[in-house]
Amino acid sequence: MPIVPSREAIRIRHLLSDHFAGAQGFALIELLAAVVILAIGLLGMAGLQTTGLSANQSAYFRTQATNAISDIADRMRANPDGVDNGDYDNFSTRETLPLVQGCVSQTTGCTPSELAAYDLREWAKHFVDADSLGESYRPLLPGATGLITRADGTNNFTIQVVWQETDWSNDRQKALEDKMLTMQVSL
Asked: What percentage of the chain reaches a pLDDT higher than 90?
C-alpha cells in the first residue's frame, strides 16, 4: 500500500518551498564572502611574515657586526705592546691590507708589530677576500667595511663596522641602506 502524505505534511512542504524560493544562490554569496575574508587574512599574514623575516635578517647582521668588533677588540687587548706602538691606529679594511705574517707558524713567535699586522689581516677577512679565494669567498656582512680609529694621545679606540642592508620600507621598493655599528674601546 502506497504511503500518502498527510494534509499537514503537504502544507509544511509548501510553506518551506515558498520560504526558500527566493534563496537560490544565497550559499554561493556566503561562500564568496568567506573566501574574500580569508584572502584578506592570508595577505595580512604574508605581510607579517615578510616583516618578521626582514627584522630577523637585520638582527643577524647586527650580531655579525658585534662579533667582528669583539674579535678585533680582543685581539688588541691580547697585544698591548702593539697598541702602544700604534700598530692598530687608523686602519680601514678598504685600504691596502697588511702582508701575510709567517711568524705565527714559527716557534720564535711574532713581534708586537707583526702580531698586529696578522690581527688586522685576519679581521679584514670578515669583510674582504684577503686570501684571494674568489668565488668561494663569502663575506661576514654584505658590502661591509671595518674601521679602527684612535683618539689622539689616548688608548681610546673607535671600532666601526659599516654594511649594506636591504630596506623595504620605501614604498615597498628594494633599496640598499648603509647600517653602522660603533663600539668605543679603552685599552
From this structure: 48
Q: How far is CA 88 from CA 20, 68, 71, 139, 149, in A?
A: 87, 15, 13, 22, 8
171 vs 163, residue with greater confidence: 163
pLDDT at 1 exceeding the cut of 80: no
Residue 31: give the domain boundaries. Answer: 26-186
Q: Is residue 10 part of a domain?
A: no
Look up cell 659599516; give the residue. Answer: 162
Mean pLDDT over residues 150-166, rounded?
92
In a domain, 133, yes or no: yes
**Domain count along the chain:** 1
Residues 6+ apart with CB under 8 A from 113: 82, 85, 87
Asked whether residue 7 is assigned to any structural domain, the reply reads no
Q: Which alpha helices (H) appear in the chain, and where do they start and end?
A: 7-19, 26-77, 80-85, 112-124
Checking if the pLDDT of 37 tops 70, the result is yes
The DSSP code sequence of 101-125 is -GGGGSTT---HHHHHHHHHHHHHT
Return the residue matching grid coordinates 564568496: 32
Residue 37 sits at φ, ψ, to 5 deg, of -65, -40
